[in-house]
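hey so u asked for the seq, here:
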Amino acid sequence: MASRRAQIRLEPAEVTTFLANHWMLILGTNSKNGWPHMTALSYGLIDETIVVASFRQAQKVANVQRDKHVSVLIEENQVDYFQTRGVLAFGEAEIRDDLDSVRCASEAIVAQRRRILGNDVFIPDSVERSAEKRCVIAIKPVRTVSWDHTRLGGEY
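ran it, structure tokens below
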């Protein structure tokens, strides 16, 4: 019999689908004092890269400039343990601050939100107006951990 860990682990194609079907993540960066810095953000996907947009002066950007190692958590259903599914990705982040990268990432983020939430979802028009003050954090996952507790059959 397979271990419980092996039983709940998502296959690579399932991880890809899971990432494509969500729009919010928790980004973990490393602060200069050693404490984790966690931020909830909308995200998009460009090929196999997770992209988030931020103001250039944000703490998460300073943290990534100092240390490119980040983690990303995407999880669903926090009501019932046996319905919880998630992906934790450990990755290397790159700051992209050229206007084309900011626009491309913003388009990917908006497309992801609209695909999941519908075309009526509110998207602030301030993104274009503030593009010159923004940057992209592009995250290339190097390792993922995943779980699908629905596979446990209601037993721990």
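The two ends are 15 Å apart (CA to CA). The chain has one domain: 4-152.
lmk if thats what u needed
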